[in-house]
């Protein structure tokens, strides 16, 4: 029984995926009233912040396409409101997600997907007298800088709350010494994807990033990522390096000619309202860069979808739409065709197949099934090679 209890405790402690969905398109900017056209400059800066967060590239605003777009910020702005923060005027802005994604594609910049790794941050600060752990609500300059920069870069972080379990579950010396086992055990109560240990001595930071969840820290042979930073902007530099690491790891690049695409067919589209509702929902998906309408016939619509993620990610996002379910497909067995030996003259005649015989983009044949096209020379026993059918993901629209 004792061993069974330990096993159950171990299973319970394994954290689920902690990926966090980041709102890439909302930002708040201070309005510098000392500048000419202060409001316009604040809006352009807000759009620049959104581009940096969405691409994971701090230099994205230097891109020529982005530079042109920044002067037309109102075309990308959905809504805004004014406020006050510490006695200074601010403007809060929400930009259009489809338009920003389209702009990023046009600029040939990477897109850092909205679902991002959540990082648990253990921060230990050393003063002349002692070492202390900075908890979620600690009044720490380093912690405030760390939080502010992570918000700018769109890097989700979690700081331990500092309750009884935290205080009694981990010694400061364990963090300072980098002892993995106690750090892993103390971190396992938080659903995070990575663990970051930061040691601060004045303006000097040394940090270690374990790019796996707490449970896997003990199981993995993967070496942690380490680094250091100094000066008044040390916390900012550290978050920039970690953000760059995850952006490079998880970004996708969609080109106008080389983007990954997939055909998606939707049945039971009965009227214009159904069509426009479906199109709007598809364009809003984080895995979708843009859509092309390939075919509308009867109650079926087929889109060519330019992806910002994998086919699997797109399919999962589509199936989260309440009015969509996966279409039921009847499996069609692939015919077996024996190709006889042909005379040379017959082979020459059978080398081409008319375009009308090839399967169209809008074929209703199930995904993954190949069709065999028989030429006009079938009387002579000549059969062409199987022609692959374009893979199509099929869904049904529900009323």
UniProtKB/TrEMBL annotation:
Keywords: Signal. It comes from the Bacteria. Residues 1-18 form the signal peptide. InterPro entries: DUF2066. It comes from Vibrio ziniensis. It holds the Pfam family DUF2066. The keyword Signal applies. This is DUF2066 domain-containing protein.
């Amino acid at each position: 029984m004792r061993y069974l209890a330990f096993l159950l405790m171990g299973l319970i402690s394994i954290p689920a995926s902690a990926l966090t969905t980041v709102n890439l398109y909302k930002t708040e900017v201070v309005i510098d009233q000392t500048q000419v056209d202060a409001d316009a400059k604040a809006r352009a800066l807000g759009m620049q912040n959104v581009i940096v967060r969405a691409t994971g590239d701090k230099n994205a605003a230097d891109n020529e396409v982005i530079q042109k777009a920044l002067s037309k910020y109102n075309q990308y702005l959905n809504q805004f409101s004014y406020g006050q923060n510490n006695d200074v005027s601010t403007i809060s802005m929400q930009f259009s997600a489809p338009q920003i994604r389209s702009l990023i594609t046009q600029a040939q910049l990477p897109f850092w997907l909205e679902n991002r790794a959540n990082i648990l941050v253990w921060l230990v600060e050393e003063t002349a007298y002692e070492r202390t752990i900075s908890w979620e609500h600690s009044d720490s300059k380093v912690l405030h800088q760390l939080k502010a920069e992570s918000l700018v870069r769109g890097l989700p972080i979690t700081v331990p709350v500092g309750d009884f379990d935290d205080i009694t579950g981990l010694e400061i010396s364990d963090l300072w010494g980098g002892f993995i086992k106690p750090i892993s055990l103390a971190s396992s109560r938080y659903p995070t994807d990575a663990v970051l240990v930061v040691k601060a001595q004045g303006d000097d930071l040394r940090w270690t990033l374990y790019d796996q969840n707490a449970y896997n820290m003990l199981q993995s042979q993967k070496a942690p990522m380490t680094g250091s930073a100094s000066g008044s902007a040390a916390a900012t530099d550290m978050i920039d390096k970690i953000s760059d690491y995850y952006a490079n790891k998880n970004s996708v690049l969609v080109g106008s000619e080389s983007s990954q695409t997939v055909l998606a067919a939707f049945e039971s589209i009965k009227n214009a309202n159904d069509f426009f509702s479906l199109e709007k929902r598809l364009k809003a998906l984080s895995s979708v860069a843009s859509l092309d309408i390939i075919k509308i016939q009867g109650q079926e619509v087929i889109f060519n979808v330019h992806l910002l993620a994998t086919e699997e990610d797109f399919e999962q996002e589509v199936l989260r739409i309440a009015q969509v379910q996966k279409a039921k497909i009847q499996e069609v067995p692939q015919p077996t065709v024996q190709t006889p030996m042909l005379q040379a003259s017959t082979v020459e005649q059978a080398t081409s197949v008319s375009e009308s015989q090839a399967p169209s983009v809008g074929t209703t044949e199930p995904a993954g099934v190949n069709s065999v096209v028989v030429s006009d020379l079938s009387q002579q026993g000549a059969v062409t090679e199987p022609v692959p059918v374009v893979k199509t993901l099929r869904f049904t629209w529900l009323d």
